Amino acid sequence: MQKRKWYGILILIVCSCNPAAKKDYSWQPPDTGQIPATDKGRLIRYGRDLIVNTSSYLGPKGIRAAISNGMNCQNCHLEAGTKPWGNNYSGVFSTYPKYRDRSGSVEDIHRRVNDCIERSLNGQPLDTNSLEMKAITAYVLWLGKDVPKGVKPRAVGIRDLPWLSRAADPEKGRIVYQWFCRRCHGEQGNGLFNADSSGYKYPPLWGEKSYNTGAGLYRLSRLAGYIKDNMPQGYTHENPLLNDEEAWDVAAFISSRPRPEKPFPKDWPDITRKPLDHPFGPYSDSFPARQHKLGPFEPIRHAH
Ligand code: HEC
Ligand code: HEC
Predict the structure, then answer these.
(1) d(CA 27, CA 90)
(2) pLDDT of residue 54
(3) Residues with Cβ < 8 Å from 217, sequence gap 6 or more?
(4) How many angstroms separate the alpha carbon of residue 112 from the centre of ligand 1?
(5) Alpha-carbon gap, residue 35 to 53, rounded angstroms
């Protein structure tokens, strides 16, 4: 008995000294007014501008380079990458460089930014030494600068919704889309591009101007989690409009529409590490590709 008690206290001490064990780190974005008036500060501000107005700089008519599809990083990383559960950047400083199963290698932040440019912006990578890459990474790292190394803040990135017990249903999702999404994202899912090419008033959800099949949002769990906590525009994790089923179904509808197909043959070199909802084989199990795309995911999870 006595021995057990000491054990407990020891574990408690070890856990409270190890920041990685602190699961509920609550992050507040630093105040942009505190960005210093130095060269470094100017770089951070330019980085923020690139996240918000990516298309003006790097879109089809970009003033710095025409290397991406016209979307802004902020279309998916809401409020300049600061919104809780809105795919925010709070965990980048504290967790990069990190090993990622998708590439089977340790990725630094430049590589991670270019991942999104090549996939989510269906574009060409930035040179690591370019001013734009330096600025984007300076801003993203600045946002998370106060987070202790190794800690993943609460409300970082996109939430994992509970798996549905059935397959997500694109036809049910079509109805959700007509009611709650179409008025902004359009009947054809192509959104509304600002006349001055500064980006989208409403970004595209499918079609040739949207993210490609290698993007994170093409995985159903990522899309459903993003939608549940953030869409329609203005809804939040605390105040969502859709229930979980509606979020999964509308995600299934969107993911069943056409979009740019870009193969990344080097992804997931160890197929046993593929997420359950990765829509492309080969797989280490015998479930069909359609089930990996739309579910039901529980049977796959149990088989692993
Ligand atoms: C179409 C949506 C979309 C767009 C546009 C987009 N991203 Fe992402 N980004 C994602 C998704 C999805 C993830 C992975 C989130 C997850 O799985 O939790 C991600 C992750 C990241 C991460 C890693 C975050 C972390 O905590 O590991 C960085 C850095 C990043 N994006 C940078 C950018 C930059 C810079 C741009 C613009 C050049 C951009 N992204 C545009 C969807 C997008
Ligand atoms: C009132 C207008 C509005 C409605 C309604 C709306 N959205 Fe959006 N949506 C936006 C805007 C604006 C953005 C980009 C946010 C930004 O840049 O700050 C966005 C971004 C997105 C994105 C990420 C970017 C992309 O293009 O892939 C997805 C996915 C999305 N919405 C899905 C939906 C779904 C699903 C619904 C219905 C449940 C919905 N939206 C309803 C305005 C809306």
Answers:
(1) 7
(2) 98
(3) 76, 120, 211, 223, 226
(4) 8
(5) 19
Query: Does the CB atom of residue 75 touch ligand 1 within 6 A?
Result: yes
Does the pLDDT value for residue 9 go beyond 90? no
Q: Which ligand 1 atom sits nearest the alpha carbon of residue 71?
A: 5
Ligand 1 binding pocket includes 254 (Cβ within 6 Å): no
Residues 60 and 270: their CA atoms lie apart, in Å, by: 35
Sequence length of the chain is: 304
Token match 């992804």: residue? 267
CA-nearest of 281, 289, 287 to 263 is 281
94 lines ligand 1 (CB under 6 A): no
Q: What is the widest separation between alpha-carbon atoms in the chain?
A: 73
Percent of the chain whose pLDDT exceeds 90? 90
Residue 42 has pLDDT above 80, yes or no: yes
Which structure tokens are listed for 271?
A: 């197929």
More confident residue, 4 or 302: 302
Tens-digit pLDDT profile for residues 167-201? 999 999 999 999 999 999 999 999 999 988 789 99
* Cα–Cα dist 2/9, whole Å: 11
Dump pLDDT digits (tens) for 89-144.
999 999 999 999 999 999 999 999 999 999 999 999 999 999 999 999 999 999 99
CA of residue 51 relative to chain centroid, distance = 14
Which residue has a Cα nearest atom 2 of ligand 1? 76
Q: pLDDT band at 22, cuts 50/70/90?
A: low
Residue with tokens 């300049």: 80
Q: Which residues line ligand 2 (CB under 6 A)?
A: 72, 74-76, 78, 180-181, 183-185, 202-205, 217, 226-227, 231-233, 242, 250
